[in-house]
Write a structure and sequence with these properties.
51% of the residues lie in helices and 16% in strands. The chain is of the alpha/beta class. It has one domain: 3-Layer(aba) Sandwich (Rossmann fold). A five-stranded parallel sheet has the order 2-3-6-1-7. A two-stranded antiparallel ribbon has the order 4-5. A hairpin with a 2-residue loop joins β4 and β5.
């Protein structure tokens, strides 16, 4: 076969199979903003999240929280190719607070954003099985999904003797379509494997930049929620 014929055939195949829509990590309205600007705005939004919960915001310069905010800004603006973000670590250490700050920033910068808990995903999948109104497919297809508290939902859903796994199915879909997914979880890698299987952890390794929270529970220190 002539090289030109090969090129034409490959071009036709690629056009036919290029169904993946590239979703930029940095929302359209934020394009052109550098890491320092994004980091400063995230810091302000994080403070808003804490104070909105009736908690006193403490100075966090030089702390793990500040480092994690900087890491999130680096993921958004830097050259790293991973499409998604995994906020992983101990209870009450600020994962959901950072997720909420990121969500506020993304909602300013883009449309097509959904925020939910893992339990909401599970409940919406059950509603879909029951032929009730459901957001499950919207969660799968959203350009940007903020998924909080992974691992707090039942691992499986049974319908007429068939076992379904709503969260892995959602993760596989978003992995295949390279959609931006920001996830928070208290589960360690071993517990992710025990709860969802090795395949989900493998997907996370490829698709997610990981930010680890190791600090003490903020809730225990002040008696009020930090996340």
């Amino acid at each position: 076969m002539e090289p030109t014929a090969i090129q034409h055939l490959m071009s036709a195949i690629r056009q036919n199979t290029s169904g993946t829509k590239h979703i930029p990590k940095l929302p359209p309205k934020l394009i052109g903003k550098d890491k320092e600007v994004i980091q400063a705005v995230l810091m302000e939004l994080y403070q808003d999240v804490v104070e909105d919960r009736g908690c006193k915001f403490r100075e966090i310069a030089g702390t793990e929280v500040a480092e994690n905010i900087a890491a999130a800004a680096e993921w958004m603006t830097g050259p790293k190719l991973k499409t998604s973000l995994l906020l992983q670590g101990t209870l009450g250490s600020g994962k959901s607070s950072l997720m909420n700050a990121l969500c506020s920033l993304y909602r300013f910068g883009a449309s097509g954003i959904y925020k939910c808990t893992a339990l909401m995903v599970y409940d919406q999948f059950k509603a879909k099985l029951d032929k009730q109104p459901s957001y499950y497919d919207e969660f799968k297809k959203a350009d940007y999904l903020f998924l909080d508290d992974l691992g707090t939902e039942p691992a499986k859903c049974k319908d007429y003797g068939v076992d379904y796994t709503p969260l892995p199915e959602l993760i596989y879909e978003r992995y295949e379509k390279q959609r931006v997914t920001i996830i928070s979880t208290n589960l360690s890698d071993d517990r992710i494997v025990a709860w969802y299987g090795k395949r989900v952890l493998d997907r996370f390794e490829e698709m997610c930049e990981r930010i680890v929270f190791l600090g003490d529970s903020y809730r225990e220190q002040i008696g009020k929620p930090a996340e």
